[in-house]
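Sample pair:
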Amino acid sequence: MRESELERKERERRDDLARLRGLRPIDDDFMRCIFRDNIPLAQFVLRIITGKYDLVITGLETQKDMKRLVGARSICLDAYGHDSEGRKYDLEIQRSDYGAGTRRARYHSSAMDIENLDAGQEFDELPDTYTIFITEHDVFGRGAAFYPIERVNLVTNEPFGDGEHILYVNGAYRDESDIGKLMHDFSCCDPDDMNFDVIKDATRYYKENEEGVAIMCRAFEETRKEGIAIGLAQGLEQGREQGLAQGREQGLAQGREQGLAQGREQGLAQGREQGLAQGEEKERIKNIRQLMRTLNLTAKQAMDALMIPVDQQAKYMEELN
């Protein structure tokens, strides 16, 4: 029996609440919600990750879209902030190791450069940028909490000092340090099991507060709609491709059939024409021989009598000989 619209919505809400209970701060959907407009949380996390405990975050955006070059690939930053010194921070949560590739880090870093230098500004005005990937697994496999990536002059072995900083944070790291406790909290479903109040409170708000739960449910609904839209678009594209492929196959088949039919017709027509021509030639030769025999004429005289054109007589002469 097909479920009603009300039953469908109730089922989806039950599914959403069950899903919400299992979410952790390291999960994309949940991370974007707990960081949205939450400068204290972003500041707390960035202080631990960068080791700059006097860092003051003065602005924060989640899902920051960056695309300033026409035709260039756009990117959407999970959490984009800046501090009181003008430094820029891109905080990315990546559960998949593939999503934290080295060239992606390079692209994110370059996108922030393009975003933060306008026409007419000097290159020295380019701010320091921090591209930070928090990964669920230890992508470099060395057991470290942090993997800082910095440019170095390979001859002098000195830092290049261009202000670009890329940092990978090992989400699997655990110990009693601040970063070990923070990574533990990022992987917790239950706020009661978390160490730090600022992340515990944000998690509890979206899991237990009626208003926060409603926000998460709306986010789930938007994700469902996006998934349906993407599915429809992919379905249409696949249908178009299949239709074109079938159309090409049918067109080739029809073309072959038409080609064979035309070939048969042309072959028959040519065969008829050639047959008639050969028949006429045989008949003429027969008539020439008969005149030569009955009237005692030469071949030339017989062909003239039959009014055979002079330019064709040589051909018949060969046949007669």
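The longest helix spans residues 210-294.
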